[in-house]
Design goal:
Elements: E1 14-15, E2 28-30, E3 33-37, E4 40-43, E5 46-49, H1 55-78, H2 84-95
Parallel strand pairs: 1-3
Antiparallel strand pairs: 2-3, 4-5
Helix pairs in contact: 1-2
Length: about 100
């Protein structure tokens, strides 16, 4: 990094160790600065934890789907003129896609 004059924002840098026992890894540093070690990270919309389990990601997606379902209830209450076919289209496009 120093040789090629690449500059990193060290405040945004984090480290994740993957494996069966990720807690045994030592501290990481870049240019003498210790990098914060975290247990999970979101990359390209997918949450990875240090044991490569997807429980956090699945729980997050379920929570988002329930929030969308709540919004669909609000839409249904406020727009009385929605036909059942329109409601099904909204459900399939917004909630089931999650």
């Amino acid at each position: 990094m120093d040789i090629w004059l690449l500059h990193l924002n060290l405040e945004k840098c984090t480290a994740v160790s993957y494996g069966r026992r990720p807690e045994i890894c030592t501290k990481c540093n870049i240019s003498g600065e210790i990098i914060e070690k975290i247990e999970s990270i979101k990359d390209l919309g997918v949450i990875f934890d240090n044991k490569l389990k997807f429980g956090d990601h699945i729980n997050n997606e379920i929570s988002t789907a329930y929030q969308m379902l709540g919004m669909l209830g609000i839409v249904k209450r406020n727009f009385i003129c929605l036909t059942p076919d329109n409601l099904v289209v909204l459900y399939k496009s917004i909630i089931r896609s999650r």
